[in-house]
Amino acid sequence: MGDVTGFYGKRRKWYSWGYEGEEIPAEAVKKMANRMSERLGVGELEILPDPTLDDIELRDPRISIPRSLESFCTSEKWDRVFHSYGKSFKDLTKIYRRDFGNPPDIVAYPKDENDIAAILDWCGDNGYAAIPFGGGSSVTDGFTGPEGDQYPGSVIIDLGNLNKVLEVDTVSRCALIQAGTLGPSLEDQLRPHDLTLRHIPQSWEFSSLGGWIATRSSGHYATHLTHIDDMVESLRVVTPKGALENRRLPGSGAGPNPDRIFMGSEGSMGIITEAWMKLQGRVKFRANASIAFKTFYQGANAVRQITQAGLFPANCRYLDEQDASFYGAGDGTHSMLLLGFESADHPVDAWLERALEICCDHGGTVTQKAGSDADALKTSRSGAQGNWREQFRYLPRLMHTRAAMGVVSFTFETAYTWDKFEAVDTEIIRRIKEAQKEITGGGIVCRRFSFLYPDGPAPYYSVVAPSTHDKSLEQYQALSDVASDAITELGATITHHHAVGRSFRPWYDKEVDPLAREMMAGAKQVVDPKWIMNPGMIIDRPPHFKMVG
Ligand SMILES: Cc1cc2nc3c(=O)[nH]c(=O)nc-3n(C[C@H](O)[C@H](O)[C@H](O)COP(=O)(O)OP(=O)(O)OC[C@H]3O[C@@H](n4cnc5c(N)ncnc54)[C@H](O)[C@@H]3O)c2cc1C
Q1: At what angle do helices 472-489 and 89-96 cross, to 10 degrees?
Q2: Could you point out which of 297, 383, 396, 522 has its C-alpha 20 to 30 Å from the C-alpha of 535?
Q3: What angle do CA 413, 414, 419 make, to 5 degrees?
Q4: How is domain 285-396 classified at the architecture level of CATH?
Q5: What's residue 82's pLDDT?
Q6: 138 alpha carbon to ligand 1 midpoint, in Å?
Q7: Residue ranges of the chain with pLDDT lower than 70?
Q8: pLDDT value at residue 545
Q9: Which of 159, 199, 203 to mutate for ligand 1's pocket (most ligand atoms within 8 Å of CB)?
Q10: How far apart are CA 425 and CA 297, in angstroms?
């Protein structure tokens, strides 16, 4: 049978973030609920107990494991339950409602590409949905199987056993890494070589290299190397049609880059098994500062000038007043910019000084600053920077408590160009507030910039609203739809880094040119002629395509 304990030999919790045994004490949840009810101006919130496996009713598996695959496949309850949901508010609310209406039938834990090929052959022969699974941190319904009977079974392919750094090229600073490797073990394996991938999404602890590539995640760097795409040198992918591997090259002008079709394909084109990744030296020099701005738009102008000046800060988190207050990075009266520069090679004080000049030109007040390396490390772990960092790291462990409290709580993210930033941002906030008044009777919406480009920001919005256990899911969906409609109608993207999944598919379909989508369908037809790979993600079979194979 398979192994679900991964590189560190510990089993994860199936209903929230973290490992088994890391429970959040009931008093801590009560305290959070009291803070939440105060923030929302509502009475005491009813906290649902954590679900147990015995609470969950699962339909029987619709398909049986053939003898040839028995050594690495299972239909045990725990495995099917753990792989039923990602980690969005919607997922967690369904988990707390004990609603497991569409579990996978079988979970496979392949140990190598032969196992993967065998599973894909079996799924292809029988028309079962074959769904890759990395860390399971999807917040967009990225790996739930198709509903209905178009696919008689669904099989999750958990890549947790493919968790090694296989080869390190210290001269070119690259490594060949297996796709199922989660963030911490990836860095642990690179550390002895004094190298780092330095791709640290907030979900880093429980998300995988293959998942990052398949969803085009954004990580540590606020500017320059934000998307994982920028660090991919070459990929190896096992598709139902066979394995495909591209040449390791620092850059090439030989036609369209074939790896690109797999980046962001969300499991619909095949299973990424390995990637050569471009690495960095480990950070030796740092400089950082915190800057307060009276209004969000004042600071946004400073941030735009910083990115356009080619300064490329590693950290450029810009939080509005409410977001800053929530993260303990401000008192709620000012927007806060947390700015950081870093290098493995040279001091970065000059970059910080120039950025601070720009902030002061835009009316910013420097509240915390450190230039030399030792000081900078200290400040990044204290005051506004430290509070923000601690909250950022710890918050995922508390996500499920919002579902347990029966409030509505979700985030959405996008990107659009600077020329329309203020108008689009104002309109998005207006529409959400209006919808909150109508749907939940009020609530909070705040935003920050996590990632930035010279031609535009990637704003990230957080929405919290009062609700009740019987209504929170439906009210979430209504508010989320308002946000997605606004984004699409105002010319922004439905996702900058969380991916499309099932959740945002209708808006993705409006965003991308139909001819481009048909081109991608043509590519899928070639590598996945029976259309078994993660059905429902990104690409549907156009009616005129014929099944081949
Ligand atoms: C608390 C929290 C914080 C987050 N913060 C960030 C953030 O800072 N930045 C960010 O970009 N995202 C963030 N996310 C979203 C999520 O972590 C990313 O989408 C991440 O890249 C998913 O990786 P995973 O390994 O968990 O993939 P999974 O959730 O397992 O799968 C996601 C999708 O990728 C496909 N897939 C997975 N592995 C492979 C593979 N090897 N080959 C082909 N397809 C595959 C799956 O089929 C699915 O469609 C966050 C999520 C949470 C819960």
Answers
A1: 170
A2: 396
A3: 140
A4: 2-Layer Sandwich (3.30)
A5: 98
A6: 5
A7: 1-8, 545-549
A8: 67
A9: 203
A10: 10
CB 391 within 8 A of CB 7: no
Domain made up of 406-509: CATH architecture:
2-Layer Sandwich (3.30)
CA atoms within 13 A on the CB side of 152: 9
Reading the block at residue 510, the tokens are 């409006």
Predicted pLDDT of residue 387: 84
* Prediction pTM value: 0.97
Q: Which of 202, 527, 528 to mutate to test the pocket of ligand 1 (most atoms within 8 A of CB)?
A: 202
- The DSSP letter of residue 231 is G
CA of 1 to the centre of ligand 1 (A): 25
Task: Dump pLDDT digits (tens) for 352-380.
Answer: 999 999 999 999 999 999 987 778 888 77
Residue 547: its pLDDT value, please? 57
Testing ligand 1's pocket by substitution, the residue of 217, 218, 398, 460 carrying the most ligand atoms inside 8 A of its CB is 217
Cα-to-centroid distance, 180 and ligand 1 (Å): 11
The CATH code for residues 165-281 is: 3.30.465.10
Domain spans in the chain, listed from the N-terminal domain onward: 165-281, 285-396, 406-509
Ligand 1 surroundings by CB, under 6 angstroms: 86-87, 131-139, 142-143, 159, 179, 201-203, 207-208, 210-212, 214-215, 217-218, 266-267, 271-272, 396, 497-499, 534, 537
Q: Residue 549 has what pLDDT?
A: 46
pLDDT tens, residue by residue, 161-192: 999 999 999 999 999 999 999 999 999 999 99
